[in-house]
Amino acid sequence: MRFLLLLLPPLATRASAVPADCDIEGVQLDHGGLKYIFGQAHDPGSIYARCNNGLATCFEDRGLVDAPHWINSNEVDCAHVHERRRLGVAVMLREDIWPDHIVWYRINGSFSDHELEVINAAVDLYSKAEVNVTLQECDPVSKCNGKYVSIEQNEDACYGLVGYVNDGKPQIMNLGESCFAGGIGNVVHEIGHAMGLYHEHTHWNREVIVLTDQNLPVSAENYAKKTSREAILKPYDPKSIMHYGRSAGLCFPKPQYPLQSFCDIETVKNCVQPVEQHCDSSRDSEIGTRAVLSAGDILTLRALYGAIDDTKVRDVRIPTLASLDDDGVGAPVSIADMVKPKPKSTSSSTEARSLDDYIPGAVIANKSGTR
User: Fold this and answer.
1) Residue range 4-10: mean pLDDT, rounded
2) Is 25 a catalytic residue?
């Protein structure tokens, strides 16, 4: 007599298991999510965590905006969170407006004549904004007591710090070679950060969605929303020089999809995973074009530093340098075009609702979605 041996699977299989969430000293973090445990995005010394199936990994934020993850974030023991909380705000280096309304800078990188022309044109552009702040070159270094924006070219990436960081040391602005492709817009963007402007797409009331299923070209904290308490209150401004574009993983959703239904960098449960099919491609040209220093940008700078006079605020168009036209290089859609991303790991999430909740007839290869 022959016996047939049946190998029965365990009751709880991997495929059907629900990914576990994380708990960091009482702070709950959803699987696949990112959350600041101490401080906030782009505050040097802040700590944020990412959760992958019950395993939390913590990172210290160096405060560098536009930088890819491996430049801006250092992995740390999650136990450091308790130490940071105990020390309180004294450990934080808060950004602020520049003393005497002077943003000091020094050009310390080995830039070509063309690149220097772009930097100087970007600096000059801000003088047209009629804001009570000036950009001045610190030469000799004693002129600014050693505190200035150090414009360098250490690697092919574009990044810097937001506003004045009161640590008594030079603060870096890195402008890699590709930051100069297509015009002066990317340099205007980085100078905006140095003066105190945050990314416009982090506005708490933004109208774009983040395609988190894609390999985002810069660190995820560059997409985390600012709360209404953290940011200067002004209307959301898609034209802002500080707004990322379509190639950086942002888009306006099609009108038939409710904006509030989508998952985000920090919200990954009971929501719809944004994907390409949700995007309204007809509106791609409205964001990240680097075409103007917008009236909204200027109003924010005036809120920080005041206005020179009461002239009506208007967009300041980004000029095209004649020397750039010879290269035949099109303007980059976004600062994030300048970064070559590293591959990211993915993990499944059973919490995000599938596309066919909102797209009739959609074929979903992986209903759990990827992050």
Assistant:
1) 41
2) no
